[in-house]
Write a structure and sequence with these properties.
Layout: H1 2-29, H2 40-43, H3 49-76, H4 79-83
Helix pairs in contact: 1-3
InterPro entries: DUF6900
Pfam family, one: DUF6900
Domain DUF6900: 17-67
Length: 84
């Protein structure tokens, strides 16, 4: 049962990451979807260097926030649960 829970958690985390990346692409690069559509005109985009920088900064900040959240969750758990 634990493997199922872990797999479901991993799937949910992957979906959340996909949504985050799609949001960054839309907000900073004006790319509507990150899905491959097998068409050069749909899969390749001209973007500004300041848009790329902004998107990278947003992704970096999201990573920092995720790391801080993971660290605070780990330190909030009692030592007995961490050992289990």
């Amino acid at each position: 049962m634990r493997k199922t829970t872990t797999k479901a958690t991993a799937t949910k985390a992957a979906q959340q990451l996909d949504q985050l990346l799609a949001r960054i692409a839309l907000d900073h690069l004006f790319i509507e979807t990150l899905a491959t559509r097998n068409s050069d005109s749909l899969d390749f985009h001209d973007v500004s260097v300041w848009g790329v920088k902004s998107a990278l900064m947003a992704a970096y900040q999201a990573g920092l926030t995720a790391g801080q959240n993971a660290t605070s969750k780990a330190t909030d758990q009692p030592a007995q649960q961490q050992a289990a």
